[in-house]
Amino acid sequence: MAVRSDLTIYQGDTYLSPWWVVVVDGAGVDLADPESGWTVKAQARRGDEVVATWAATDPTPGAHLVTAAWSGDISGQPIETTALRLYLTPTATAELEANRSLAFDVELNNPTAGPLGDPYRVTLVVGAISITKDVTE
């Protein structure tokens, strides 16, 4: 089940989303290990138009995925996994059109992690992004 998270981005400001911890079926995911097969991608859209893409390959200029190792307790069980967040540079946020709302989601993929060795794809986070005009120039 995806987490709902609505975001506000100010034009021309550095933007960092909240951290989201990645857990799949109660298990941690190591996004730093390329041999694990796990990849993450996020997009923001206005209708059918892709406004921003965060991904390891072919991201929007100035859009980056930030990951970090995370250890903690979930439902009484110790978990070691990855936390992630979305980052936009000031140049990237300046390109966004003010007073607009975008839909976004963050998806996790693995080509062989399904129950039958098939592809596994899950939406981790879903929400809306509000773009606000910066007041101070």
How would the blueprint of this fold be written?
Blueprint (H helix, E strand, L loop, with lengths): L2 E2 L2 E4 L4 E2 L3 E5 L2 E2 L10 E8 L2 E7 L7 E12 L2 E12 L1 H5 L6 E10 L9 E13 L5
Parallel strand pairs: 1-11, 2-11
Antiparallel strand pairs: 3-9, 4-5, 4-9, 6-7, 6-10, 8-9, 10-11
Care to describe what's here?
The chain has 137 residues and is mainly beta. 4% of the residues lie in helices and 56% in strands. It is built from one helix and eleven strands; from the N terminus they run E-E-E-E-E-E-E-E-E-H-E-E. Strands 1, 2, 6, 7, 10 and 11 form a six-stranded mixed sheet that branches. The protein starts with a strand and ends in a 5-residue tail after the last strand. The mean pLDDT is 93.
* Count of DSSP strands: 11
Radius of gyration: 16 Å
Termini distance?
40 Å
Strand content: over 45%
Overall helicity: under 10%
- Report the total helices: 1
* Outline type: elongated
Structural class comes to mainly beta
Biggest sheet character:
6 strands, mixed
Give me the strand/helix succession.
EEEEEEEEEHEE
Low-pLDDT ranges: none
**If you average the pLDDT, what whole number results?**
93
Task: Give a concise summary.
With about 140 residues, the chain is mainly β. Helices cover about 5% and strands about 55% of the residues.
What are the salient characteristics of this protein?
137 residues; mainly beta; 6-stranded mixed β-sheet; 5-stranded antiparallel β-sheet; 1 helix; 11 strands; elongated
